[in-house]
Amino acid sequence: MTEENCIFCKITQGEIPSAKVYEDDDVYAFLDLSQVTKGHTLIIPKTHAKDIYETSEETASALFARVPKVANAIKKTYEPLGINILSNTGEAAGQSVFHLHIHLIPRYGEGDGFK
Ligand code: 5GP
Ligand code: ZN
After folding, report:
1. Which CATH class is domain 7-107?
2. What are the pLDDT digits (tens) for 44-98?
């Protein structure tokens, strides 16, 4: 289920190009356009959900279950010292795209660009 005018639905459909990190039947992971640090990746469910409040357990389970796999792919490719994993919910929390997503932000030590 996709939603019209949702940029992340367009990304899962291949209508907007993206740099794929991982994909299966349920989720799609790709590099964030604005790389906070090298390898900054977003994981999204292929089923549209606006945010964590409006997500079914089924969609959330599939999404969160893939975090270890995507984190390991990032670890292997970028060899960061650590990774911050977070999800912004609501404008006040910094959400700017209203299709649920998890940020994986690789960390490389002080001064790597993420605060
Ligand atoms: P939020 O601010 O909602 O937590 O995160 C949305 C993220 O999506 C931002 O970090 C932004 O850079 C990224 N983003 C917005 N539009 C696009 C796009 O068209 N392609 C990609 N790869 N990332 C996008
Ligand atoms: Zn969507």
Report:
1. alpha beta
2. 999 999 999 999 999 999 999 999 999 999 999 999 999 999 999 999 999 999 9
pTM of the shown model: 0.97
Q: Could you tell me what percentage of the chain is helix, strand and coil, using 3-state DSSP and rounding each to the nearest 5?
A: 30, 20, 50
Looking at the CA of 103, which ligand is closest? 1
| Cβ of residue 89 lying under 6 Å from some atom of ligand 1 | no
- Concatenating the DSSP letter of every residue in 36-58 gives SSTT-EEEEESS--SSGGG--HH
Residue 48 catalytic? no
The CA 51 to ligand 2 mean position distance, Å, reads 10
